[in-house]
Amino acid sequence: MGSMKEDAPEVSAALLEGIRAAALPVSGRASDLDPLIESIGDARFVLLGEATHGTHEFYQARATLTRRLIAEQGFRALVVEADWPAALRVDAFVRGNGQDTTAGGALGNFQRFPRWMWRNREMEELVTWMRAHNATVPPKQRAGFYGMDLYSLHDSMREVVAWLDTVDPDAAQRARERYSCFDPFGPEPHVYGQSTTLGQADSCEEQVWAQFVELQRRRTRGPEDADARFHAEQNARLVANAEAYYRAVYAGRHEGWNLRDTHMADTVDALAAHLSRSGPPARLVIWAHNSHLGDARATQMGDQGELNVGQLLRERHGAATYNVGFTTYTGVVIAAHEWDEPGLRRRIQPAMSGSYERLFHDVGMPAFLLRMAELGEAAGGLHERRLERAIGVVYAPRTERWSHYFHANLPAQFDAVLHYDETRALRPLDSDAGRGEEDAPDTYPFGL
């Protein structure tokens, strides 16, 4: 991923002074975010990232900002990097519907790895607040909770059939027949993807798209509940896109990534249109990893053919999109050693020389906000591409440079960035996550 010279752009005293002049201190008070609220202005789509999937400060700041956007600016939805069916149980809870009486119970459908992303104290507190807030406003002004990811292939098929069973048994039977195409592959979608890519079985592409189109055509029908029909349609959209995704992951990284992020952006747009159908244009908050929400065109990933949600929403909506990135220098995070293993408390290594995170550490402020339109003298130096760190649900310190860094132009990637120099781990609800704590290996930065 480039030479050491590329990895270590010059850091001058003038650049550090410029960043200090532009940086707005963050101390944990809600008023710290006043300048960010001002910069967001009338944007309809506010994208809130995270540099890891397991950091308390990122969730806390996003929750504080989300509460203010809902309560003060009338935002109608929180859309997260999670699957549509699991999120709908939370949506029912925050609207005062469903059977759940506690936020912890409402988060119970998040059972797929990594559960700690959504089953944590930070989310529990936010959805509890959303329910209380919604109880004080008319139903049409209540804020919902939605997922935009596409991993719930089988759950979404079941949801489509279950809804059709209540409104049109003949249509439900057609859906069962179409979705039975997946039966030979069992419950694991990757088996389907591998078998069809290797030519060992025919794909289900024709069947899933036929089902999605049939559900779309139901919009012109009579008295069906518009929300329930929309939820079923979104599940059918997810099935169609997930079918393509699980085939694409065996064709190459970029094909699968691009299908997934296009699905997430399309879900945001479909939801925005649905929530706007009988009132003013709805405004939405979107939570996902920095790698999904920072404009891919400003990164090494974009150079290599990847697009993402941030890029697509900027292309589609321009200035109506405002995206915020989050960074940290070091601290403790919830992350697994390998996919589908328990999330542990892991100490992350100090950020590498030549990275934005190391540069921000050298600024000498514990936490601060940078608005890219207000960089002043720091603009030139910050626009020079540097390394940026991304930790997902798996943290691999022994291959830190190659597993977790890429080059980016941060001011072109985000409209604002919140930096926390040392961060803490999320607080999982489940006892099988958050155990132990590991120090960074003493062979940093190479882990050899």
TrEMBL record:
GO biological process: response to antibiotic
Compositionally skewed regions (Basic and acidic residues) per UniProt: 429-438
Region (Disordered): 429-448
Stored CDD domains: Ere-like
Xref: Gene3D superfamilies: Biosynthetic Protein domain, EreA-like (biosynthetic domain), EreA-like, domain 2
Pfam family, one: Erythro_esteras
Name of the protein this chain belongs to: Erythromycin esterase family protein
Lineage, uppermost ranks: Bacteria, Pseudomonadati, Myxococcota, Myxococcia, Myxococcales
